[in-house]
């Protein structure tokens, strides 16, 4: 139920944002529209690079060895999970069981 609501809100915000951008583009003078059409691909690339960088987990290990085996990938992921769990256990409040 909650997930369906989130998808509905996400879609509505997307439509509203596209409508606002379309109206802003329509109100630009013709020179501004041509300039916007030239700069739009550059802006999209500039926004996509940080998003792609944040989306990939364990990127430094993948960049170091992009053709690593499946066992090596599992080892990298397990090491990160163990590090995360040990940090969580270290900073857990005293007297509370960490889960």
List the topology elements.
Blueprint (H helix, E strand, L loop, with lengths): L1 H26 L2 H26 L3 H6 L5 H21 L9
**Strand residue percentage:** under 5%
CA-based gyration radius: 23 Å
* Count of structural domains: 2
Chain-averaged pLDDT: 82
Distance between the termini: 27 Å
Helix and strand element order = HHHH
Largest sheet: none
Give the total of beta strands: 0
- Overall spatial form: elongated
Helix content: over 70%
Number of helices: 4
Regions with little confidence, pLDDT below 50 for 5+ residues: none
Coarse structural class: mainly alpha
Characterization of the model:
The protein has 99 residues and is an all-alpha fold. The protein folds into two domains: 1-40; 56-91. Helix content is 80%, strand content 0%. The radius of gyration is 23 Å and the shape is elongated.
Features:
2 domains, mainly alpha, 99 residues
Short summary:
By secondary structure, the chain is an all-alpha fold. The chain contains 4 helices and no strands.
